[in-house]
Every structure is written in C-alpha cells, then in structure tokens.
Amino acid sequence: MPRRARPGRRPGESYEERSERRQEARERLRCRNNVTTCRHPARPAPRPEHSPRQREFLRRRNLASEAAGILPGQEPEARTPPESSSRVEPIPSIPLQEALHRELLLKQKMVILQELLSTLLQASEKSWQGQLNEDKLRCKLRVLENQLQACTQSYSKEGVKQILIEMEDQKQTYEQKAKEALQKMLEDKLQTEQLLENSQRSLAETREDLAHWKERCATLKAELTRVTAAHTELKNSFQALQSEVQRADSQSERLSRELRELRDERTELLHTASALRSDNDRQAGPHPPHPRTRMNSFKINHKLQKAQEQKITLEAKISHLQNLIHNQNNQGKSQEVTVQRKDQVFTTQTPPLTPAEEKQNALLEHPEEEEEGTESLKDEMQKRTSQLTAKENECSELRWELEALSEEYQSCLTRLRQCRDELNRSHGSQAQRQRGPWIPLLVAVAAVAIATFLASSRL
Q1: Keyword set for this entry (predicted)?
Q2: What end-to-end distance do the CA atoms of the chain give, in Å?
Q3: Angle CA(311)–CA(317)–CA(320) in degrees, nearest 5?
C-alpha cells in the first residue's frame, strides 16, 4: 500500500495553527474505523476516558450522557477490556474536542493578555509619571529662565559685582563671628575645666578636712569623756573632803567643849587647892612644914604647871585647827594665797602666860601638908594629864588628816589647772581655722566644774 505523503507547511501559518492542525489530523487517524476482513465484528467500543476537567465539562452540558444514551445521574457501565483480535477504537465527538481545545487556547491567551495588560498598565503608569515629572521640570526651567532674565534685566554687571562683594564681606563677617564664637567657647571650655579641677581639688581638700575633723571630733569626744570622768572623780573627792572637813569641825567642837570642861575642872581644882592650903595654914600654926610635905607640894606644883602647859599647847593647836578650817573655806577665792600659806597652816606657837595664870602658879607654890589631899590631887592631875595626852593625840591625828586633805585638794587644783591649760592650747590651735563644736562645750564643762568646786569649798 503506497504511503501517503505528509502535507507540507503552509506559508504564513503560525505555531498555534500548525499545532491545531496536527492535533486534528491525529484525532482523525485515531478515530477512523480500522476494520479488516480477517477480524471479527468488533464489540461496541468502550467510551473514551476523559480527564476530570473534560468530565466536569461534559457533565455540566449533558453532552456525554446524550451521546451515549445515558440519563443524567446514571453511572455508565464498567468497561470491559477488548480482545486483542477484536479491538475497535471509539469515535469521539470532534466538535467537542475542538471546542475544548479552543477553550484551552483562549484561557492561555487570556492569561497572557492579563499579564501583558498588567505590564502595559505599569509601563503606562511609569511613562505617565515620567512625562508628568518632565512637564514639572520644564515648568521650573521656564520659571528659572524667566527669573534669570528678570534679574539680568534689573541688575547690571556692576550691581552684581557689588552684591557679590557685599556677600563676600558678609561671609567674612560671619566667618569672623564664628571664629570669635569658637574662641569664646574654647575659652569657656578651658575656664570650665579649670573650675572643675579647682572644684575637684577643693573637694579633695574638703574630704581631707572632713576626715581630720572627724578624727579631731573623736579625739575631743574621748577627751570630753576623760574630763567628765575626772570631773566626777574630783566631785567625789571634793565631797569626801567636805565630809572630812565636817568631821573635823565636829571634832574641833568636841575638843573645844572638852577644853571648856577641863578649864572648869582646873578652876575647881585651883579652888580646892586654895582651900586645902588655907586649912593647912590654920592647922600648922607657928610650926614649920615638914620637908617631905614640901617635896610633895613641889612635885604637885610641877605637875600642875606641866598640865597647864599641855593645856595651853592644846588650846593653841585647837585654835590653829580652827584657823586651818577657816582658811580651807576661803581657798576657793584665793588659790595662790592658800598655796603660799600651806606651810604656815600647821605651825604651832605657844602663847605667853596670862597674869591670872601666873597668879595661880604662885598660889600653888605653897603645897598642903596632908598626904591624903596631895595624893588625891596627884591622882586627879595624872588622870587629867592622861586625858589631855589623849586629846593631844587626837589633835595630832586630826592634823595629819587635815594635811592629807590639803594635799588632796592641792592635787585637785593642779588637775583642774592642767585641764584648763589643755583646753586653752586646743582652743588656740583651732582658732585660725573652723571652730569645732566640742571646744566651747569642754570650756563650759571645765568652768562648771571649777565653779562647783569653788562653791563647795566656800560651803
């Protein structure tokens, strides 16, 4: 069988037309009835399988059911595979295929046209924007040209030169002002840096002074505590001295009272001795006294004289003790005078005998003759002598106590003087600089302590 020649290309045919033509030729070849004499009559050809899109398209248009004789909604019968000897291809609907093909092509063209349309819209937008910008620039150029032309017409070359010169002068003036402003800013910056350095230096000095004053404050607090303790100790010692002085006053009063009693007893003894002597004279008559009686009388007179001397010494000591107490009360007013008189407080001076005492001694030169009277008088004189000795011992003990009290009072005065000197030195060293808050307090405390001590000493 001779082979049919392929149709050649048609002039002016596009690629899409050529593809459609070839597709139609293939469909014609596929759908032709290839029945030969050697084959049995073919069974009804199965319905061609369609794509889901084609099936949906046919279902909506009811084309496949009408062509196959199936009502809409009925399922087609299952295909049975054709035998190899009796295979018959189905005959599709050519107009349907062509319509589907044209629909696909139209959709593709629609997509392409949409893309082209968007591209064209963008290009037209850009071109329109560019044209609009170009028109604006042209308008600006025209305006600038008009302004330039007006300027060239209104100003001459000399005027333009003058304006340029003025602008140059203004530029130089502005530059000069800017330089001056910069110079001033630099000077202000340097001055500020200098002030900052000075402030930092003063801050460091202030911190050092603060640390120094803190140390000084702590030292003054410790010194104040020490001075307070010393003041308390001095106050206690002053109270003890005051109690000792009161005790000495009571002892001096007691001694003066005993002295008065001794004087009364001495007066009574003198009266008794004179009475005994007159009795002896009456009893003796013209007879001379016995030598032994004279010896006893002389001894008694000697003892009486000795007792009188001891009494006078005791009176002098008591008077000096009273003077000492009075001087200690006046020591608060004159401390220096008290120190100078310290050695003269305890000196004892025996006063001279009075005429009455000399007369009494003269009367005692003539003793009694009776032994019993003389012995009783001797015993009484010994007793009084022992009492006077005991009183003298008590006075000596009181004198030692007063000496101890005076020494303790002097030590207290020296301590107060030392505290006052220390306060004066600290006040003089800190007078040129800032005054601390504790120095006046220390001075006030010292003044109060001294005033209290002087007031107590006056009492």
Answers
A1: Coiled coil, Membrane, Transmembrane, Transmembrane helix
A2: 173
A3: 145
Rounded to the nearest 10°, the torsion over CA 259, 262, 267, 271 is 180
Instruction: State the pLDDT at residue 264.
Output: 79
Give CA angle at 249 (245, 253), nearest 5°.
170
State the Cα–Cα distance between residues 369 and 371, nearest whole angstrom: 6
Neighbour-count burial for 221-235, b at 16+ CB within 10 Å, e otherwise: eebeeebeebbeebe
Closest CA to 237 of 48, 93, 452: 452
If you average pLDDT over residues 381-387, what whole number do you get?
69
Report the distance separating Cα 356 and Cα 118, nearest Å. Answer: 164
- Asked if 277 contacts 366 with a C-beta cutoff of 8 angstroms, the reply is yes
CB of 425 closer than 8 Å to CB of 368: no
Least trusted range by pLDDT, from 10-19, 111-120, 357-366, 419-428: 357-366
One DSSP character per residue, 200-229 reads HHHHHHHHHHHHHHHHHHHHHHHHHHHHHH
CA distance 389 to 397: 12
* 439: nearest Cα among 420, 453, 454: 420
DSSP letter for each residue of 54-105? HHHHHHHHTHHHHHHT--TTPPPPPP-PPPSSS-------HHHHHHHHHHHH
Beta carbons within 10 angstroms of residue 38's beta carbon:
6
Q: Which amino acid is at 440?
A: P
The DSSP symbol for 349 reads -
Q: Where are the alpha helices (DSSP H) in 86-156?
A: 94-154
What is the distance between the alpha carbons of residues 94 and 25, in angstroms, rounded to a whole number? Answer: 11
* Residue type, position 451, single letter: A
pLDDT band at 45 (very low <50, low <70, confident <90, very high): low
Residue 407 near residue 328 (C-beta atoms within 8 A): no
As a whole number of angstroms, the distance between CA 70 and CA 354 comes to 187
Query: Which amino acid is located at 31 in the chain?
Result: C
Q: How many residues make up the chain in this entry? A: 459
172-197 burial, b if ≥16 CB within 10 A, otherwise e?
A: eeeeeeeeeeeeeeeeeeeeeeeeee
Is the pLDDT at 406 greater than 80? The verdict is no
Residues 6+ apart with CB under 8 A from 244: 401, 405
- Classified as helix, coil or strand, 50 is coil
